[in-house]
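Notes from the 1:1 (GR / supervisor)

We went over the backlog. Supervisor wanted to see one worked example end to end before approving the batch request, so GR pasted a single chain during the call. The sequence is below; no edits were made to it. Supervisor asked that the structure be written out right there so they could see what the output format looks like.
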Amino acid sequence: MNARQAVGRHGETVATRALEEQGWEVLDRNWRCARGELDIVARDGETAVAVEVKTRRSTVAGSALEAVTTDKVARLRRLLATWLAQQPETFAHARVDVIAVTLPAAGAARIEHLRGIE
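Structure output shown during the call:
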């Protein structure tokens, strides 16, 4: 695993912990199929949520949230539909969220959670 992958993996762990602290149930991490990957799939009440995690060490190259384009959101929606089709359980709702994790040189990670991105 290279340094970039390690930063991404750490960000996903931080995001997972944050979701669990909010009472969410994490159902899958790094779920893959032929068309791509979902970082986290979680349950928020009756809603299945695909959570895209973007991790940065700084905002010099732009915000982590800026890295999530409309094409990326469309792909995440398709992947979530595929994930849902494979589950024995049904959900009342489904949505895509983004969690931006910033890892400063010192101190705790900063988390920004955008719910229901379009």
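Supervisor's comment: The chain has one domain: 3-114.
Batch request approved.
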